[in-house]
């Protein structure tokens, strides 16, 4: 068998070895050394790995037929052997015929070559991805030796096979790390998803608490307004009743004294009639306010689905808001629509409408504004109820409009705004009533909120 055929056979055997494609670097290094010894007829071969940058290298495999137990615990540094490191980086292959006379080996003679009896060596750099990563070193014992071009090509091919093993090792390491990363990532995603779900639950719980607090706060404000409003008719009724009592006492006194005259009797009866009329009118007014308050207050805290007539119900809700609007100098106009029966959730409707009206009163007009007006217009379609809340206030800019329904966004923080009024109104309309809430506005031209809800929402 010729040398070329023998080399081809050795290279084919190394190429087919499992350790090459499995990335078993130590086994591949040992196999390459064995092939170099067999192919070149040298007693000693070794594989070295080079640092990046190449300032040192260490032996990873060594085959020495003269000393099978020779240790591969060897290393060389650029600092100690500069000539060799310069040569190995500059040349594709270092074919040293006579190590004792070659300039690149000058620092290796005393500590390495002479003790081992090495007279010639063939060192081939191993490259991967354009970078030198190692060296395949074949060493001849005895005198000088000339290395043929075929021998140099053969060692170069062995070096390429070892580079393939290193690439396989890197690929397998990458795949293993990628698999571990995927497993870690999957676990992290699960953990983060769990944390997000917990955070979402806390957020939803907090949102429910805020909505309930806002409901109670609005109800408290409603109570205060209605109480203040009731004071007026009750006070008038008390005054009229007191006046009537005084008239009756005077009548009784004159009667007992026998000084009662017909004209005095008639005047007293007329005064008593006026006082009783005044008491009746104001007590009825107070009773109507109380009835409106009781109805809407009960609805606000209830989530029951009921049958009710839209005009009457909206009017009762607006009646409870009258004191708040008057305190802010806002005139309210309610435009009834045709009779419109609903089967829906009056509490959610009351809360949404109250928030829209309160929002207009709080944000729509500057303090002391003259001519502040608010219109609530009701219209009825076969399947839908439409309620428009229109004010002639300052309106909204485009920037404010974009965030109008955003939770906690308010332009009246200093006046006690929470930034939840419109958010809760839209939530009530969309989630509880199954409808929609839209707004049209321009700066200086007021706002027009359109509440559209189904007359019989689908559960």
Automatic annotation (TrEMBL):
* Reactions listed under catalytic activity: ATP + protein L-histidine = ADP + protein N-phospho-L-histidine
The top EC class is: transferase
- Quote the EC number: 2.7.13.3
MF terms in GO: kinase activity
The residues covered by the Histidine kinase domain are: 225-457
**Which UniProt keywords are present, listed alphabetically?**
Coiled coil, Kinase, Phosphoprotein, Transferase
Quick check: keyword rRNA-binding in the entry? Answer: no
Transferase in keyword set: yes
What PANTHER family does this protein map onto?
Answer: PTHR43065:SF47, SENSOR HISTIDINE KINASE (PTHR43065)
> In its UniProt entry, what is this protein called?
histidine kinase
């Amino acid at each position: 068998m010729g040398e070329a055929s023998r080399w081809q056979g050795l290279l084919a055997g190394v190429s087919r070895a499992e350790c090459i494609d499995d990335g078993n670097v130590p086994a591949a290094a040992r196999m390459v050394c064995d092939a170099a010894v067999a192919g070149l007829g040298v007693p000693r071969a070794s594989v070295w790995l080079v640092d990046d940058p190449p300032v040192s290298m260490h032996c990873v495999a060594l085959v020495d037929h003269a000393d099978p137990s020779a240790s591969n615990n060897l290393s060389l540094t650029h600092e100690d052997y500069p000539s060799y490191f310069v040569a190995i980086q500059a040349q594709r292959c270092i074919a040293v015929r006579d190590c004792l006379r070659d300039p690149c080996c000058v620092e290796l003679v005393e500590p390495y070559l002479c003790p081992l009896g090495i007279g010639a060596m063939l060192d081939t750099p191993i490259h991967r991805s354009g970078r030198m990563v190692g060296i395949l070193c074949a060493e001849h014992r005895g005198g000088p030796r000339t290395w043929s071009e075929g021998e140099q090509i053969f060692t170069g091919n062995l070096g390429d096979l070892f580079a393939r093993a290193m690439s396989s090792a890197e690929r397998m390491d990458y795949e293993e790390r990628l698999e571990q990363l995927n497993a870690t990532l999957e676990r992290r995603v699960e953990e983060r998803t769990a944390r997000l779900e917990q955070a979402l639950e806390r957020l939803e719980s907090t949102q429910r608490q805020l909505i309930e607090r806002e409901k109670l706060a609005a109800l408290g404000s409603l109570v205060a307004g209605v109480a203040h409003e009731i004071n007026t008719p009750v006070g008038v009724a008390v005054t009229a009743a007191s006046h009537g009592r005084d008239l009756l006492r005077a009548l009784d006194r004159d009667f007992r004294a026998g000084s009662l005259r017909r004209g005095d009797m008639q005047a007293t009866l007329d005064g008593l009639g006026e006082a009783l009329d005044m008491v009746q009118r104001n007590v009825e007014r107070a009773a109507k306010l109380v009835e409106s308050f009781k109805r809407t207050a009960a609805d606000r805290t209830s989530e029951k689905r009921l049958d009710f007539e839209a005009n009457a119900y909206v009017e009762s809700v607006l009646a409870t808001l009258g004191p708040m609007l008057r305190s802010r100098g806002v005139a309210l106009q309610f435009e009834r629509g045709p009779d419109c029966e609903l089967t829906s959730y009056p509490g959610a409707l009351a809360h949404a409408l109250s928030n829209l009206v309160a929002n207009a009163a709080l944000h729509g007009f500057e303090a002391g504004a003259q001519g502040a007006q608010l219109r609530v217009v009701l219209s009825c379609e076969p399947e839908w109820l439409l309620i428009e809340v229109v004010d002639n206030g300052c309106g909204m800019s485009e920037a404010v409009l974009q965030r109008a329904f955003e939770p906690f966004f308010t332009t009246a923080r200093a006046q006690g705004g929470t930034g939840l009024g419109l958010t809760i109104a839209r939530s009530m309309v969309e989630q509880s009533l199954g409808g929609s809430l839209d707004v049209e506005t321009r700066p200086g031209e007021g706002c027009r909120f359109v509440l559209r809800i189904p007359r019989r929402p689908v559960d």
